[in-house]
């Protein structure tokens, strides 16, 4: 993608380019040993630390929300 196209995307909110993109940030306070363990686990799985943490958080959230019979906000209802 050329710089002109990227500039257009950056300046064009109505084009919908950011629809569905990850835009929020979640900060966690962890110990250095937790970070090391998380980084090693992410590397073993072939994922970035961010992707690894997000995938694991989603997995646990789905289980806990389902156990509580709650809707899962980040999953589309079946049939949509």
What does this structure look like?
- This protein has helices spanning about 5-10, 30-45, 50-65.
- With about 80 residues, the chain is mainly alpha-helical.
- It has a domain at about 30-70.
- The longest helix has 19 residues, at about 50-65.
- The radius of gyration is 17 Å and the shape is elongated.
Give the structure's gist in a few sentences.
The protein has 80 residues and is an all-alpha fold.
Keywords, separated by commas or semicolons:
about 80 residues; mainly alpha; 3 helices
Major beta sheet summary: none
Number of E-type strands: 0
Please compute the radius of gyration using only Cα atoms. Answer: 17 Å
User: How far is the N terminus from the C terminus?
Assistant: 31 Å
- H/E element string? HHH
| Anisotropy-based shape | elongated
Helix content: 40-55%
Number of contiguous helices: 3
Note the quaternary state here.
Answer: single chain
Strand content: under 5%
Q: What class do helices, strands and sheet pairing give?
A: mainly alpha
- Stretches where pLDDT falls below 50 for ≥5 residues? 5-11
**Average pLDDT rating:** 82
Topology, element by element:
Elements (H helix, E strand, L loop, with lengths): L2 H9 L20 H14 L3 H19 L13
């Amino acid at each position: 993608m050329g710089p002109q196209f990227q500039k257009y995307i950056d300046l064009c909110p109505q084009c919908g380019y950011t629809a569905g993109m990850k835009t929020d940030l979640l900060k966690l306070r962890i110990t250095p040993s937790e970070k090391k363990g998380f980084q090693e686990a992410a590397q073993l799985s072939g994922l970035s630390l961010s992707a690894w943490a997000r995938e694991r958080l989603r997995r646990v959230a789905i289980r806990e929300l389902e156990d509580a019979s709650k809707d899962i906000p980040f999953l589309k209802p079946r049939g949509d």
